[in-house]
């Protein structure tokens, strides 16, 4: 694949070089003409009439109306292509092990998006040998049914994160966000010290659950009333893990939520060691 891509690029570059050579030779062979005699017959004035012109002449002479009608036609075509994919659930194979995000992970995901992490990290491993060898099992569409919006992409200033969950301990993520070079020497990732001071606004949790439910995430009715209890339970577990590595942090800090989200990535379909 890389050889074919290189060959295609060589053709493109060769054509570009040939074009430059052609332009240079054309310029060198040309001669400057200050005044050149020329003549042309007068143009015949043609006035189009609706009776004699083509049926579409009336819209072609009205650019604004034509632009509006073009957008309408393109919109209809787009709807006909997209609506079936939204209505037919079989278009995205479901995976029984994929579960909705916990309240803490939802907050962490919002922080991840807010900080622009997706601009340098993708979350989609393509089914190519080199990608699977580096990052792990390639991504499945069914993994992202609860992601609104999903974090796919091709921008990889940093590594793909689709299978990051469980790869490192909580303390690794803590130190990595505080000082990336301490965990990844040579990293150009900036530091995020405010995540260790800023508190998560847990009052937003019920609204977040309700929004996700409207988007199709199967949270139980009434779960928004008890969601913060699950938030606190998971946050206590993460802070306890950090404490074992002599890292003290309050449960309501944003870094705790972000760690929860990072540790979730890709774990829904990871194969357990017993099945290897």
Would you write up a description of this structure?
By secondary structure, the protein is mostly helical. The protein has two domains: 59-91; 103-275, Cytochrome Bc1 Complex, Chain D, domain 2. 46% of the residues lie in helices and 0% in strands. It has ten helices and no strands. The protein has helices spanning 2-29, 57-60, 63-87, 103-114, 129-135, 170-178, 180-183, 205-214, 227-244, 254-264. It starts with a helix and ends in a 12-residue tail after the last helix. Residues 272-276 have low confidence and may be disordered.
Overall SS class: mainly alpha
- Overall body shape: extended
What is the CATH class designation of the largest domain?
Mainly Alpha
Low-confidence segments: 272-276
The structural domain count equals: 2
What is the residue-mean pLDDT, rounded to a whole number? 89
Instruction: Kindly state the percentage of residues in helix.
Output: 40-55%
Strand content: under 5%
Distance N to C terminus: 30 Å
Question: In CATH terms, what is the architecture of the largest domain?
Answer: Orthogonal Bundle
CATH level 4 superfamily of the largest domain: Cytochrome c-like domain
**Helical stretch tally:** 10
Task: Write the SSE topology.
Blueprint: H1 2-29, H2 57-60, H3 63-87, H4 103-114, H5 129-135, H6 170-178, H7 180-183, H8 205-214, H9 227-244, H10 254-264
Helix pairs in contact: 4-10, 6-10, 9-10
Task: List key phrases describing it.
Cytochrome Bc1 Complex, Chain D, domain 2, 276 residues, 2 domains, 10 helices, mainly alpha
